[in-house]
Amino acid sequence: MTLNIFDTQQEALEMLARYFVQLANEAIEDRDRFTVALSGGHTPEALYILLAGDYRQKVSAWNKVYFFFGDERYVPHTDAASNYRMAKATLLDPLNIPADHIFPVDTTLTPEAAALAYQQQIDDFFLSHEIRMDLILLGLGDNAHTASLFPYTDVLNETDAGVSAVWTGDSGWRITLNAPLINQARNIAFLVFGEEKAEAMQHTFSKEINTAHYPAQLIRKERIAWFTDKSAAARVQQG
Question: Are 72 and 81 in contact (CB under 8 A)?
């Protein structure tokens, strides 16, 4: 695991964009495709704009990139809260990614059916082989949730890699890749900014493990790269 701490958010974004490009080009050269699961929320939006802008020409073949979603809110694709809608507007449409390279969650189904259908989509894509995405992008909530792995939800106890519907209470239903599936990825990158995330990062990096309360601790894979600013990482640096 590598913890990359930068003076500014823009520096962290630039370095993650370079990391994305590096992994994409290596995967395309080695396996003729690059599979990535996108994160939702405000923080990765700036990354997607950067990739579709200044870094557009740096990926060797965008037509060999396949886009999945680490989690999705149970809302229509046209809803302002939809992770798919945000990624479509900031990354997928600007890059003219073909529809058959994009795998959104079907939120017209019931939450449980949507999770099952998404699991089937992923299984079909990987031809029932071990599901190892080349990169999964993640954020960190101030309660130490990541993807839609929220504290004290049943999905935290799952041991088989898969996709689950999660009732989060105030945040409603979510559909998410579970921790075993995320941990199978070749690479995982966290993008975390701001003083308000300092406590969550402190707990995530703590040697005292309490995954029920701090779900991001479930993501313990060696090949994790953190891209963060000093304010978010302040308590980690302090010990």
Answer: no
Structural domain of residue 112, as residue ranges?
A: 2-218+231-237
Q: How many CB atoms lie within 10 A of CB 93?
A: 11
CATH number of the domain where residue 197 is located = 3.40.50.1360
Name residues whose C-beta falls within 8 Å of residue 199's C-beta, 6 or more positions apart in sequence. Answer: 142, 235
Angle at 226 between CA 223 and CA 230, to 5 degrees: 155
Q: What is the sign, positive or negative, of the torsion defined by CA atoms of 62, 64, 65, 68?
A: positive
Residue 176: what are its φ and ψ, rounded to 5°? Answer: -145, 150
Is 156 inside any structural domain?
yes
Cα atoms found within 13 Å of the Cα of residue 121, Cβ hemisphere only:
19
Residue pLDDT, tens place only, 23-72: 999 999 999 999 999 999 888 999 999 999 999 999 999 999 999 999 99
Query: Cβ distance 40 to 86 under 8 Å?
Result: yes
Residue with tokens 């049943």: 154
